[in-house]
Records
---
Amino acid sequence: MAKSPSRQTCSEALVTSQQASGYIESNGTITRLASFPLFTHESPEQWTTYENMLYSCLRTGDDKAAHFFLQKLALRFGKNDERVMGLRGLYQEAMAEDSSALSQMSREYDEILVEDPTNTPVRKRQITLLRSLSREVDAINALVELLVASPTDIESWAELAELYVSQGLYQQAEYCLEEILLSTPNAWNVHARLGEASEKLMVVIAEGAQNTVKTPSGDLDSELPVPSMEVLRRLSEKATSILAESAQKSRNDQSSGPNDFAFVADMLKSSTKFQER
């Protein structure tokens, strides 16, 4: 069991699941004394092995053996243990016969999370389930809630970035990838993904800039090109000077209300910031 189940090949998972019968024969009696470590000979490696066995058995379709290891873990750590709850959800998802059963599982996850929003294993199972049901928007919302509770979860940031890219939200994906680089600044693969997201974002911006602006008449023959940045800058300078004159007049004109002057002042500030950029 040197490898994590997520890194095992299909053949390695099959070999691991075939070892389950030996573990069941040697530990076949499920007794409540397992809840008391003083009465049993156990080690952390034993329970890690049981969990890995559970994953491998589910992967190879040995549902009976998977249920045995789930019972062992639940008896040792309790049914309300967060990790056990996540493993039970994984088992029930594997047993689901159709999408309606999976949707019911999603509702059960919602009920658990209402009581305990910080239950990370259940939250992650819910996110995986939502993605399998092609409910990407709901998965994004669930990931955002998870990251509010656990803002240093790198895997969740990476998954959220992937979902944003799939939805064409490249700017949001950039933010997620930058959050990962705060914790792992030398992760070259994340730098590569950030470059890809930035490139796609620039393509979207460039395509938007190539679009034409139609006149109010809607006549296709009267389309005008999008003005360049230099033209926009000059227009901004002209607008700034006009706003400055209006502000000066507002100060001198007693009939002008305070709201009018505040509006002009705000517009003047916005225009000045544009020029500075």
---
Amino acid sequence: MDGTEPKKLKVAYLGPIASYSHQAALACFSTEEYLLEPQSQIKDAFASVQANNCDFAVVPFENSTYGTVVFTLDLLVDRELKAPDLLVCGEFYLPVHHCLIGHASTRCSTNLSDDHAWDDSNQMQANSNPKRSSQIMKDLQHLSTIYSHPAAFGQCEQFLSLYLKGVEKQEVSSTSRAAQLVAEEGANSRSAAISSSLAADIHGLKLVAQSIQDRDDNSTRFFILKNGKSNPQGLAPSSSSPHQPSCSDKGADKWKTLVSFTLPQQPSGTLADALQVFKNHGLNLTSINSRPSLEHTWHYVFLIEVQGRREESDDDDGGGVMNQALKELDTKTTGAWKWLGSWRESSAGII
């Protein structure tokens, strides 16, 4: 033995550090075994895995309040074939509690009457007593600009409409980038960011308001991507971290599969016929999304998640019920459907 340490595998995530994608990556991949590499945009995370510059990527797929992340959907559709080898091999649910962070630090008490208010723990909740006295932040009035990711704005609409109505909203690539921008503006900044408490700590900012998301159960589901051509077996067999997703565990009870396909616009009922295939084989659909195909107007690519696992078998008649259903799907679609991965299902909030 030469005493050299084994080379660490690399994991791409939407940065900068302290983003929710970074937090999800930290929860899934031990930094003792993996190098976490921030990317400026979600498309950069896809590209890094396709080019084998990184072994895995952690990307946001959908939020429980705001819905699917369109940027990720479009990259999975991959109209320009920039990432043909990428597969989903895991998922992770991260509870997301947004904060308003900036340079302000003082508070004062004021009465606020509305259908929503801050309770004693400063969380926004439905208030059955509109005359209840609430604690709000003193320095909100000076703010002129709020930075954040579009999805974060969508998850905090109630707070924004109550306390920051009319304040300019600037969309940026991530919530941690928003915190970075506010920090760079200095102590006299009239800006704040919707981001995380971790981002506030890292960038030396104050918590102006906490848990400002519309719902207390707000969470985001992240996909873990691999290169199916260069890394067909998923995570390294030596991996032992309980937080890491298994991409190749045949003993898992529940699996999900992601498939994309297009359909002819005529005759009517083609989408219903395609979905009926999975019901005929006893497979449960858990989500369906669509994006414009750009082949011609009002024509779509559909992405569906199905409970079950596609077996990677050369035998078209083998590999289980999912393989049988996908073979039948061939007769319903225009061109070939595309398998985008199978992975072990995660319980919400637990991987």
